[in-house]
Specification:
79 residues; D-alanyl carrier protein; ligase activity; 3 helices; 0% strand; Non-ribosomal Peptide Synthetase Peptidyl Carrier Protein, Chain A; PP-bd_ACP; mainly alpha; phosphopantetheine
Length: 79
Amino acid sequence: MTTETMVLNILEDITGAENLAAELNTDLFDEGILDSLASVQLLVELENQCGVAVPISEFDRSEWGTPQQIIDQVTQLQN
């Protein structure tokens, strides 16, 4: 499974949103899809499923706001 697929699956499981792959540049916070509680769940699942640890203090919405940004951040952390 690719990083993109894993991240999209995690996002869809946490948020209940469907077809995020078609909307990779949608701002998840502005659209009300992701909130602070879901952000914490996202970070926990990214660590569990993708092996990347992101302290909540380093989670910046401007860098983690869209599905594509999240995929890019996870990919960077995996390398």
